[in-house]
Amino acid sequence: MTPAQMKDAILHHLVYTLGKDAAHAQTYDWRMALSFAVRDKIVDRWFEATRRTYAGQHKRVYYLSMEFLIGRLLKDAIINMRLEEAAIDALQELKVDYQAILEDEPDAALGNGGLGRLAACFMESMSTIGCPAMGYGIRYENGLFRQRFENGRQVEEPEDWLSQRHAWEFERPEVSIDIGFGGHVQEIGKRANWYPSEMLIAMGHDTPIIGWRGRWGNTLRLWEARPMHGFDLQRFNRGDYAAAAEPEALARTLSRVLYPDDTTEQGKELRLKQEFFFTSASLRDILRRFESEYDDLRLLPKKAAIQMNDTHPAIAGPELVRLLVDERGIDFEEAVGIARNTLSYTNHTLLPEALERWDEGLMGRLLPRHLQLIFRINELHMKDVGTRKVTAVDDGHVKMGELSFIMAHRVNGVSALHTELMKSTVFKDLHELHPNRIVNETNGVTPRRWLLSCNPRLSTLITDAIGDDWVDDLEQLEKLEPHIDDAAFLESYAAAKRQNKNDLANWIAEKLEVGIDPEAIFDVQIKRIHEYKRQHLNLLETIAHWLEIRDNPNQGWVPRVKIFGGKAAPGYVFAKEIVRLTNDVAKVLNSDPLTSRYLKVVYPPNYNVSLAEKLIPASDLSEQISTAGKEASGTGNMKFALNGALTIGTLDGANVEIREHVKPENFFLFGMTADEVMERRKIGGHSGQAIAADPRLARAIEAIRAGRFSPDEPGRYHGIVDNLVHHDYFLVCSDFTDYWRAQREADTAFAAPKDWARMAAFNTARSGWFSSDRTIRGYMADVWHAEAAPTVEDAAG
Ligand code: OAK
Fold it and tell me: What family is reported (predicted)?
């Protein structure tokens, strides 16, 4: 596509799709016009991919996920379609600011954190590889809340990404599926009829997901809840207007909001309804497609692989069995076999508070037939394995992890360490009964978004050095290794980072009115706020360091900017206190004339995918400091390493594998191992001991306790202090001393810029393995038994 053709296409959409005259068009109108122009190009390739999937009778992968944390789509689409030059030139001619257009797009924030972002990376990788796939989820009207700070405190505001027209989706009113809840069951022989008492409709909305070079395109189908019977005219005519609209409002509630809890289970009825709603709609859509092509349901596992992204879609097991037994007359045991061979399950956390358990009473009321089937599935499993030791139903609850395990032919962890911990802890008994079921598929990230698109300076440098094959074969980055010995290359590498840091410093000055020194170490911790992720460990080190600088302000300190980003779940009191403390610490430190040139703290509000794309390319140091054994994998850690930030981290999740790849000398390791953590917890008074042994830690805690960061309310953080001193389940105090040591090592290393640049470049060169393309190939081989289809030729740029 030439710039002139692009310009014509934009103007065409501006006038005929948006009904706007160029003279009056706003940024929004230009953005929509550009999006439609790009979308047109995508649609042809998307159709072609679908045609090929049908023609080749390829096995399809179905990724069921409650969350897809996509972020913005426009730039991603432009880059993958190789249309950037055309778009920039066309817009220049039209005198429209390209960057402003990109920034105008709201993030699609249909997820909380890691699990949702992983699903988005997987969708992009499956399209790049040419794996015929479809993502299924919920089209939340309100995505993850927007975060604002008011006097340092987090305030949540509703997110409304759909208040403007969404350029990337196609409404599919013809794909409307009835979903029932409640009611009663009538058993007739081996089958049953379920008569729900409440019905609503799931309507599909399709977003094309285009892969690199436009060689393949898959679909993300998101369900919107709609009422079965819209509006009650009788009531309206009687003048009861609110009641007339009630059924509609009630049904729509189901796809209204994303639950804002990351790795905590709330056990709410609406949540269970959301889970069943999207899972059932997806399965029935899958079966409808399958039955349009094949007439033998026993072929299902050969032609479809259904992945359950954590236990949120775990009702897929019993629902698929129900659809096969009650609606298609297949024998129960055979149905369980078909379902199991089709389904697989990914576990994303072992935190006890995250493991879903549904009250039997609630489940029986909402899904009476499913509860019956769960009991039968459970009995059958116990019979098959010859023991009653493990059970999916216990103590009046259905345990969704166990149910998922029993109903899946493969169960996977998301990093090597996490997978081993699954085998030895939560799924120990099940693993012993089914020793081949658990496999590891270490997470990955898409290099298109997380390097090519977000870091153009580094991308250009890489391409100049080794060509552009790295974009879809990220392990090619190893070819950079010989260049690392070249002083000129290293200088360019450092220059790219410096320019990214300058950009970020300017952005922070403008948005937060805080001046930061681009020569300082940019030390970044961005992720959900959670005790196990230990933002408070980072804060304690910050405070201790600040106090030490104050003791001796004229000793040449290595300047540092600590950057935090992340949201706390609205009901998670401790996490919200950490948010507030971070802001209070920032206020005191940034205005301290003795220290502020050496140490600043910035906490931009509303951390999201787009902000990550700004921060990561400008980072020097990546904070991956969770209590060992608690972070299943992490994926931010991979994005940082790829973009040349050095990690300061524990032996947790994928950090272990990152360290092996980038080599131990290019990684700041500290802290206890997962085994040591388990041992340490057994010691009564472990935190008191740690505090007594380290005066720096004692002084930092005392500063918080005495109200140095909350002079107007000295007791504000006594909750945090008490927790640290008396409980400290996540062993912040016990890891502090070693963390401090590693931080000082980072200072020393940063003071030798050439050595630092070499270590950073080595991180980039060795991060290729962390591409989600590699992860997807692993799933295709070990879990889905699916093959890539022959892809379409490259999109002409
Ligand atoms: C969210 C809700 C329930 C259960 C797990 C999560 C979740 O986001 N887990 C995260 O998944 C990521 C992707 O696998 C991992 O990288 C994170 O370590 C894990 O916390």
Answer: Belongs to the glycogen phosphorylase family.
